[in-house]
Amino acid sequence: MSEYFQKVKSYLLNLDVEIVKEDPQEGLFVVKNEDRGLVNLVVDCEDPILIIEQLIMAVPDKNREEFFKRLLQMNRALIHGAFVVDEESKNVIFRDTLQLRNLDYNELEASILALEMALLEYGDELIKFTKA
Fold first, then answer.
1. Which of 33, 45, 82, 124 is most buried (most C-beta within 10 Å)?
2. Could you report the per-residue pLDDT of 42-83, keeping only the tens digit for each?
3. CATH number at residue 46
4. DSSP state of 24
C-alpha cells in the first residue's frame, strides 16, 4: 500500500465526494459526486504521482479533426489538467497529475474543481459534437 493512500483518502472525504470503490493494495479510489459532475472519477496513487482521470465522452465519428482541434483550444484555458484521448482515440478523458510527496489538500481540491469548471464551461459544446 502506498504511504500516501490514507492521506489522499482523508482529503477525498473532506472534498464531499463519495468513495465508491477503494483498493489499498493498488492505491486506487473511484469517487463520485454527480451533482458536481464527478462520475467514476479515478484517483490513483502511483508513487511518485497522483493520477486523476474521468471518462468524459466517446470521440465522435464525424468532424474528428475539428473536434481534436477544439479540445486543444479548450486545454489552453484549463487551470489544471487536460482533456486527453486514450491510446485508441476512442474516448476523451480528463486527466491531471500531481506530486504525491508534497501533495496538500488545496492542490487536490484545485484539480477536482478544475474538472468541474471544465465541465460547466465546455460540457454543452462537447455534447454538441456527439450530435453533429
1. 45
2. 999 999 999 999 999 999 999 999 999 999 999 999 999 999
3. 3.30.1460.10
4. T
Tell whether pTM > 0.85.
yes
Distance CA 119, CA 44 (A): 21
CB-neighbour burial class of residue 85 (10 A; exposed 0-12, middle 13-18, buried 19+) = middle
Q: Give which of 11, 7, 2, 46 is closest to 31, Cα–Cα.
A: 11
What contacts 126, CB < 8 A, 6 or more positions away? 56, 57, 92
What percentage of the chain carries pLDDT values higher than 70? 98
In the chain, alpha helices (H)? 5-14, 64-77, 105-131
% of the chain surpassing 90 pLDDT: 94
Q: Which range of residues forms the domain containing residue 108? A: 5-131
* Closest by CA position to 126, among listed 83, 76, 81: 83
Strand partners, 38: 33
- All cell numbers assigned to 122: 465546455
